[in-house]
Amino acid sequence: MTPTRSWLVLALPLLTAAASDKAGGGPWATDFAEGSISLLVSKRCEKSRMDTRSLEWNALVYSKGPPVWGRKAAGACRGMDTWVLSEALAAGAMWNQTDRQAIVADPMKTMFDDALPKEAFKKTFGWELPERGDDVPAHNVFLKFSAKKLAALFDRIYFKPTDTVGGTTGQEVYDVFFKDAVTRFAREVALIKANVPDAQLGKLLKAYQTAAKEQGAKFRGPAYLKDVAATTLVKEPEQSARAGRTLGVMLRRTADGTWSTINRLLKKVVTDYDPALATEIGKAL
Question: Does the predicted TM-score (pTM) go above 0.70?
Answer without folding.
Answer: yes
